[in-house]
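Subject: for your reference before the review

Hello V.,

The reviewers asked for a structural picture of the protein, and I figured it would be easier to keep everything in one thread rather than splitting it across files. Below is the amino acid sequence we used in the manuscript, unchanged from the supplementary table.
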Amino acid sequence: MKEKPEIRILTSAADLQMYDEWIKTHPQGNLWQSLEWKKYQEALGREVRIYGCFDGACPERSRRAQHDTTHSAILASALVVIDKTTGGFSTWDIPRGPIGQQTDRLLAQVIHDAKKDKCMAIYCSPLDTSSLEELQASTRDSERCEQSPATRIIDLTKSEEEILAQMHQKGRYNIKVATKNGVTVEHSTDMNAMYTLLKGTGNRDGFGIHAKSHYVRFVEHLDNSFMLMALHDKKPIAGLIGVTWNGMGFYYYGASDHTQRNLMAPYLLQWEAMNYCKEQGCTQYDLLGIAPTGASADHPWSGISEFKSKFGGTVITYPPEQEIILKPMMRTMLKVKRKILG
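And here is what came back from the structure prediction:
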């Protein structure tokens, strides 16, 4: 008789080493399910659990796996970020996960534990949604806009000339404009300048930004993160925060001084970020978030999508994030409170 898969929370150094190898070699492995992301989320004050589903519950196999990570029998995994709120209630988030086979079993365990932890809702955004089929009755498309519904990926294995050639003509032109106008780009640690730019951009474009400490923790606690600053006459006029992970470069946050928009600094920033990621051995550069094809003009990411389209690349569309509602009444009350009080 075939043994049932063993599901447990990974905490030991050996288990986490095994998981790190698994997530960095699995075709669906990604930044948001990585140990690097775990470290960053914990720096933000959130609890993070990593669930692993193993091939059988044989004690001998489990003991062997703790000492021999070359014979990992992980079938599926889920990195869960737990965000506590008023009254000890919480939401659980599995960004770009779960990953692997038999994730339905894994999700069943996560749901079981979440119910005991006063969880109002679980959010998950797996690249493969087949694991959600048995849960279909209790899932629905999320109303949040946390995980991008689509993105643009730039192939960094091409030469610089080829990368420029595949861009929209306006993108190449604006990079040249910035250079001709004397804009320079350098690595920076000046978070005060970056935050000033972020506040200005948020006010101008009508979107909320995090507290400055959020961005500080990103660059200080997310391994291989970086910040670039575009300068004109030695004055910061645009900034970019990104990260590299497992051969991928990611553009995460960007901001600019609207009064200096004619200098086209954001275009040069993106170009220099691509070059930096390429130097770090990355084969792809992820522009991270665009509105999906066919989205209305009022989609939250429609404006930034137009900017990112100038850099070319391949458009990738993701399945919509799913929400598993566990405490509908509490979830509704919290949404109303946040709408009233902000």
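For the response letter, the relevant points are probably these. Residues 191-205 form the longest helix (15 residues). The chain is about 35% helix and 25% strand.

Happy to draft the paragraph if you're swamped.

O.
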